[in-house]
Each structure stands twice: as structure tokens, then as C-alpha cells.
Amino acid sequence: MKKLLWLITGLVLAAALAAGPAIAGEAKKDPLAAWKPKFDPSGAEYTYILSNISHPVIEGISVGYRIRDKIWERSNGRIYVDFRPLAQLGGEKDVISKLKLGAVQGMMSSSVAAANVSDKLGIVNLPYVIDTFDKLDKFRNDPELWDEFKNSARAKGLIVADITGYGPYGWATTIPVRNLEDAKKVNFRIAQAPVNADIYKAWDLKFTVMPWPDVPQALQTGVINGLDHTTIVCNITKKFTIAKSFTELDYAQGLFIHLVNKRWLDKMPADLQKIFLETIEEESAATRELTRKQFEEQVAAAKESGVEFIPLAAADKQKLVELAAPVYEKWGEKIGADYLQKVRSKLGN
Asked: CATH 3.40.190.170: does it fit domain 36-346?
């Protein structure tokens, strides 16, 4: 009888242990399950691996899936866009290296990281140059401005296919920032990009350069008490649960710059290249409109949850422009002083 009891107990324990991993697997659901393709991509002649670090709930990122489906349809299954968001292929600096080598064929790079590819791409990060949705559309739709920007990555073997975005930048903070004096009490997290560091040095504000994955803990522990980012990102990624104030600086538009490895593109026949590039342009244009709508929705949702939105006074914005004079000069030399002046003049800066 004792042997029988021990045998039954052993079988029950074994069954429980076997079931454990299955239960854990069910609990850990695939965050991208809703975006799986509704077709079998195994027969594609060309596979385009496209990387991004963020979550496709942001319209400027989910465009990767819309591009995937439309290109598959238009190419009759000859091109498969294998979109990999959520940093599946690594951080942006690592992916840029893989992109240049051709190990990855495409990347929707954040605008702050894209300046590491070409200095000219850094123009979109300069304060109060391309700072509104309307200016962004005007910049994108003016061939004289856009073509020089688009072609600036060719020396690295890349082309800029198009751009999408994630809204205007401001300050999400744990204490209200109503003016520039208040801002001096904040330690702002900024992105790992030289242009951003130069801006904050010129503004004489305290800042910490920090990878995005480190931000939640740093914000919770008080290592930082402010974020240089956009409403869309801060609300969707729950940063407003700690940082309950948002100062509307609106100094730049957060962008994703769609970079393509030119060697890979050139291997496709001309008809497929045309389908590929035209589809990216069409879907990107539609997504820029969706981003405007998402911005309004996320502002409304954040306000409803108790976040205070604080407009920065025009005089303070003008002061930031004046303080940034050394940045315009330094980056003007890198970007091309004539091009920077042309962009600022045409956009009314």
C-alpha cells in the first residue's frame, strides 16, 4: 500500500512539473500576436528585414506592418517585409552597423539615432526648425528640401525611403515646470545623440544621457525627474504614472527615418523597386496623418488621467532659440550652413 501511495504521489508531482512550463507559456503571451501576417511568406523571392526599437501600438511604427501587407499584395507575394519591432534585433547603434553591412536590410531609425548615419539627418533634431506637424509636411513635400535630406545617407550605402513620427517633444516631469527657472531644478533624461547633448549644454540645463530601457527604474528611484520626449510615447509607455506634468516645449518632431540598404534594393528588378519605394511613400504619408490624430487622442487621454499640460511661454521659447545659437552654428557646419539656412527660411524660422 505504501509503495502504491508513493507511486501515485510521484505521478502527480511529475504531471504538475510537466504542466508548469505549459502554463507559464500560456501566461506569457506574444505581444505581437495581433500583427502576425495573414499569409505564408515562405515563397517570397526577396525578404526585407526591417527593424525598429519601439512598440507598434504607436502609429509611426505600426506602419511597418501596413507596408508589409501592401507590398506583399502589390508584388504578388514576391517581396516579404519581415518587420521586427521591439528591438528584436538589438539597440539602434548595433542595428545601424548591421544595416550598413547588409545583415539587416531596413531600419525605421529614431531621428536622434539617425544623426549617427549622416550629420545632415540631424537637422530634424535642432530646436525650433522642424517643430510642428505643418512644418514637417512642408519639409517632406518640398523637393528642394527633402531630396538633399533623403540623399545624405548614400555615402554610407543607405537611402532614406521616407519618414513617420511620434509627435512633438516636450518635458515630462515629476514636478511642474512652468518656466525656464523651474527647468533648472530638473535632471532631464535625453537620448544617446550628440545633437541632444549639445542642445542641453547650450540651454544650461542638467541632463543625463541614458538608454531608453533604463528610464523606468531611474524615474521611479529619482535618479532622473524629467524626460525629454513626446506625449504619445510618454502616455503609451506609462511614464505619466510617475511624471504627472508635461511642459509643451514643442521644439522638435519625433521622427522615425526609414533607412534602406541600397545594395539590397539594387538587386531587385526595376518593377519591384518601384512597388517597394512607392508603397513606403504612400503608407508613410497616410501614417503622418494618423500620427496627428494619435497625438490629439493621447493628449486627451493623459489629461483625463490627471496629467497637467503646461504651455511654455513664447518669451521662454524665444530664449531657448537664442541660447541655442552655438548649436545652430556647430551643426550648421556639419549639416551644411546653406542647407540649414534654406530650411529655416522656407519653413518660416
From this structure: yes
Q: How far from the centroid of its chain's Cα atoms is residue 87's Cα?
A: 11
Q: How many CB atoms lie within 10 A of CB 237?
A: 18
> What distance in Å separates the CA atoms of residue 140 and residue 135, rounded to the nearest whole number?
9
228/214 Cα distance (integer angstroms): 14
pLDDT at 213 (0 to 100): 82
Is the pLDDT assigned to residue 3 strictly greater than 90? no
Rounded to 10 deg, the angle between the 337-346 and 143-150 helix axes is: 140
Tell me the pLDDT tens digit for each residue of 319-334. 999 999 999 999 999 9
Contacts of 43 (CB under 8 A, 6+ apart): 77
AA letter at 6: W
Closest residue by Cα to residue 78 from 298, 335, 272: 272
Give first-to-last CA distance, the chain, whole Å: 90
Residue reference for cell 531657448: 320
Query: Angle CA(281)–CA(286)–CA(288) in degrees, nearest 5?
Result: 95
313 pLDDT exceeds 60?
Answer: yes
SS3 content of the chain, % helix, strand, coil (to 5): 55, 15, 25
